[in-house]
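USER:
I would value a second opinion on how I read folds in token form. Give me a protein, with the fold worked out from its sequence. Write it directly below this note and I will take it from there.

ASSISTANT:
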Amino acid sequence: MDDGRLTVRDVLGLEPVAASGPEVAAGRGRLDRPVRWLHVAEATDVGVMLSGGEMVLTTGVLLAGDERRQVEYVEAMQRAEAAAVVLGLGRAFRTTPEPMRRAAERCGVPLIVLHRPAPFARLTEEVHARLLHGRYAALDLSDRMGAALAALNLAGVPLQRLLEEVAAYGGGPAVVVNLAHRVLASAGGPAALGGLLRDWELVSRQVAALVGNGPVTLGPDGWVVARLEARGRQWGHLVLFGHPGSAETARVVGARAAEALALHRLLGEGGLGWEEQATEALLTELAAGTARPQELLPRLRAAGLPTGRRVFVPVVFRARGELPELRELVERSLAEEGPDGAAGLAARIRPEAVAVLLSLPPERDHEGEVRRLVVRVQERLAARGAVAVAGAGFGCAVLDELHRSFVEAVHVADAALAGPPAGPVARLRDVRLRGLVRLLRDDPELQSFIERELGPLLDRPDLLELLRGYLSTGRNKSLTAQEQHISRPALYRRLQCIEALLGIDLADLEQLTSLYVALLAHDAQRAP
């Protein structure tokens, strides 16, 4: 008994019933029938007053001495789909009437006899209070959940955020699948969710066996399967695992979640589909280094990427500003890969960046494949007057290394934007010191280093820019003066001012190197 849902077995465990010496005379295997209401009646034709699910309490005073009427009474209870009949002994019957017992066993109607006087009024009051409380709780849950999910939809949250809220209400992992039972999104505790996704092929078959004709289907162990549809078209299912509540709350959670997901899809029409959103979520998590390694294999399989005996190479395309057509051009170039085993996923991970995850057979020339893809994209961009640099991570034969390689690709692409490499694709070896500094740009020690080296110049952007130009020309004073549009004497005075402010000698190579690194770090922290 939980959340106000009662079965016949639950009612028998209540104190007023237990104190009356209940005995299950027939229908012992049907005690898990739900009880919708408790009805006290002595009329022999009470069956016509019932609508199903009632537990009928009677003393049988109008049935005593008439075996035919006793049998007809039980048969009427069967037709009315009563949950059970409770017969209080003492007034009309001293023992269980055998005709009623046999009829109840034959009809599958639980017959419970009470051997001691039972306070019918008190029992009715307690059962009805529990039932009403349960229904109120379910209505309250429906209202709260519906309002919370509607607010998230109106705020325009991504599918992943909405599903996390659904999982919180469901009390366990939540998975959205398409009609082929391919995982589009998942949320929930890492341990439970990881186990489900690792065994998804087996789990998906069990889910398929549960799918029914109704909008919400309940399974064992708290599994809930809700049909996802809108505009008369079904596109998938929501599966909740391990729901701890009652069947009533499970149906409420499944129904409200399905409605919210349908609304999310309708609000997102014209944008990314759920398959694209799932790919975007996966690659964004990889690029940020937040993807859970134990989930990668099932998520990559679910996305349709080959995973058996493959080498994975992440590539990140980075533009200086938002470039709406970048993702489309990358996907078009990716689709041109021949039918010789190469495959890939592409998604926008930032307004100005698109990530690609290539899955290649181990015998392929991985660097050559990356180079060909990048060249195709850059040629298409050039035809539109646009530019984007590309950074690649290292090839991963083991998925556990993939998130590190992806983060490397992101940083390399960012560093390449500040100092474009000689070739079409930048790798960590190409961005050298600039790339290392960008990798460390969020380290608080680096910020302290910048302030120690450049502190007095941070409030003098004119001198800071002059120092940057002086170092970028290799300390060529004539060229620096020309680029800064000042005379040589003015340049000398400003360089002397920098030396005085920083307390250094610009002729000292070690001090100059330290300044150069600090400038690179300062530029890296100012970059997006």
